[in-house]
Write a structure and sequence with these properties.
2 domains; six-stranded antiparallel β-sheet; two-stranded antiparallel ribbon
Length: 474
């Protein structure tokens, strides 16, 4: 996928450029491309279930069975929740010094469509809880392995799975080489929106598949705060209230005693003021026009289950002008114990800074805050809109051709994100023109997918034996 093409006048050879190319080629001598195929766990590999248990200690205890229930649903669901396990494994593999801002959890379900500030439907990465600077290949390996696992789960032939994986890596490599020829501003402005994607699809997919894509994108434009308001609230004595749906959505009036809830509500002005300060001035003005009404705890995601997440309901001009924000707890990135602590003291700010750096366009209400909970513990949060034209791919409906196309879109998107934050010229020089890197990453993905199957089987056995309690189907 190449929404922005290079031009000859964008290329400006210089001594600095030569040095950056030399850096990439020197790194290839230090970490040969073939070495990226390597993954050989030893007897000293940490127990994956112990790693998950450690994460649970800082989360809401009553929600942990939901997390395990969602992870045990399938091998791919397990992989989605296993970012810490994979980070621990990646730390044992040959690692380059070519750094970029990492998503930290760049699996295929963490890409999707959402609205830009200019009200265009754009495709991008959309989950940054684990973001941190690090070696570029860690993101790529996690993304590519997710396609290996997804292809297997769809019972694609080994040949088709290998073809999908190779085309994913090739697209990343070739896109990075394209970005290396662009000016800094051209890279920064590169984006993939729905119209651009549809234009490319018209030449490559059957009309029936194109109609399904168009329907998905049209539906995405209906998923906004108004749609959430109609679905998630009810009027009581003329006042909108969030509908309780325990354990997935629970208003604070049900979670806490009346006195505790009243204290929390009285502090919302102070908390919103702290969040407001993290927004740019025009967004502050917009936020000021809304009045806070109510909040509820919401269970989100797979790997995130158990971290504290809240939905906040606001009213604008009247009942037809709602705003839903989501405040999600930001804990330490799973990458920090392997790559060093974040430069940000507030993990909410870490998430926001990483998201703004990697995305071409971010939510206008994206910001952060620190709060002192009712238990007296300080916690970091980041906030964004709950829904704003969001849509994700229905991977289970893909045939091999459809998954290959989606994989290439994700690969271009990840390359663009890394090109914005890393040294794209050194990266392109390191990756080279041949498919040596492609083959190595594809081999790694296959090997690691085998490991994921073993780890998933261990979780399934632990649930069956009763060692781990899992609430399935929630």
């Amino acid at each position: 996928m190449q929404p922005t093409r290079r031009r000859k006048e964008d290329i400006a050879p210089s001594e600095a450029l030569t040095e950056r190319v030399a850096h990439g080629k020197a790194e290839r001598q230090r970490i040969p491309l073939e070495d990226h195929a390597l993954f050989a766990p030893t007897e000293f590999r940490p127990d994956p279930l112990e790693l998950l248990a450690r994460q649970a200690t800082s989360r809401v205890a009553e929600l942990i069975p939901i997390r395990y229930g969602r992870m045990v649903a399938s091998e791919f669901a397990f992989y989605r929740g296993a970012a810490l396990i994979m980070a621990s494994d990646l730390a044992t593999t040959p690692t380059t010094t070519l750094r970029a801002q990492l998503c930290g959890d760049a699996h295929l379900s963490n890409f999707g469509f959402f609205a830009s500030a200019e009200r265009r439907l754009v495709f991008d990465l959309n989950d940054f809880d684990e973001t941190l600077p690090g070696p570029f290949e860690w993101d790529l390996k996690r993304m590519v392995t997710s396609f290996e696992i997804a292809g297997r789960s769809q019972s694609f032939s080994p040949k088709d799975v290998r073809s999908i994986v190779l085309s994913t890596v090739r697209t990343y490599r070739e896109s990075m080489r394209d970005f290396a020829t662009m000016t800094n501003q051209a890279v920064w402005y590169a984006t993939l929106d729905a119209e651009n994607l549809l234009e490319q699809l018209r030449a490559t997919v059957p009309a029936s598949r194109l109609r399904k894509v168009e329907a998905t994108l049209a539906e995405a434009r209906t998923k906004d705060s108004m749609q959430a308001f109609r679905k998630m609230t009810q009027l009581i004595d003329g006042v909108p209230h969030i509908v309780s749906n325990p354990p997935l959505i629970v208003p604070t009036s049900e979670l806490f005693t009346p006195d505790v809830n009243a204290e929390l509500m009285s502090r919302m002005g102070e908390l919103m003021s702290s969040y407001r300060d993290s927004l740019v001035s025009d967004r502050q003005h917009l936020l000021d026009q809304f009045r806070f009404l109510e909040m509820a705890r919401k269970v989100v995601g797979v790997g995130s289950v158990g971290t504290r997440a809240w939905i906040l309901l606001f009213e604008g001009v009247d009942g037809n002008d709602p705003l839903f924000l989501q405040a999600k707890e930001a804990q330490s990135s799973v990458l920090e114990q392997f790559l060093g602590v974040s430069e940000f003291s507030n993990h909410g700010e870490r998430v926001v800074a990483g998201q703004r750096l990697m995305q071409a366009s971010s939510d206008i209400f994206l910001g952060w805050q620190k709060t002192n909970g009712i238990d007296g513990i300080d916690r970091d949060y980041y906030l964004r809109q709950l829904r704003d034209w969001k849509a994700s791919a229905d991977v289970e409906a893909f045939n091999p051709n459809g998954m290959s196309l989606y994989a290439r879109v994700c690969a271009w998107t990840l390359a663009r994100a890394h090109a914005r934050s890393g040294d794209r010229i050194a990266l392109a020089a390191y990756l080279g023109k041949k498919d040596t890197f492609d083959q190595a990453i594809a081999t790694f993905a296959s090997t690691y997918a085998d490991q994921n199957e073993r780890d998933y089987a261990a979780l399934r056995a632990a649930v069956t034996s009763g060692r781990i309690v899992a609430m399935e189907g929630v």
